[in-house]
Amino acid sequence: MQPNRRVPNKLGKALVDAGLLDEEGINRVLDQQQHTPGRFGDVALRLGLVAEEDMLKILSEQLHVPLVNLSQYSMDPDVVRMIPESHARTYRAIALEVAADSVVVGMSDPSDLNALDVLAQVLPLPLSPVLVASESLNRIHNLYYSNDAEIEKVAQRIEVESSDRSAPKRVELKLQNQQGASAADAPTS
Length: 189
Hints:
By secondary structure, the protein is mainly alpha-helical.
């Protein structure tokens, strides 16, 4: 076995140690990163070299953060909405539950210190991050937040339509009032 021409990051080494990635796979990821910047794990997933579930297990161990399967999680819409949609989508997070002294927050990257800081500012309690699959997170975002956007769009459309419909009625009533006034103003003999 020839020596690595480049050294992978901690995740790459952990994937090799777990038998999930070989030297050729590491080199493919590192080559791809030269052309298209991205995190090692994201590139390995995009290239189909590692299954997301396997990578999440390794990340969970590395980060000492629990791994949560969102499809087996019961969510409270009020808790989910503790994180505004813009923050949830930008920082790839979802509020899962309120514990005694913290809010459990599912994140696709719980090592993102900037995301942790921003989310801590919008939550009423300290946050406890857990790791979640990115695709599951997308589905949950679309399920819980898209409805808000759709409801807002429908409400605006109804408001516009109802104001459009009432305009002819107002004109018609005004004309009737004017005609009635004209008839009342006419001299009677």
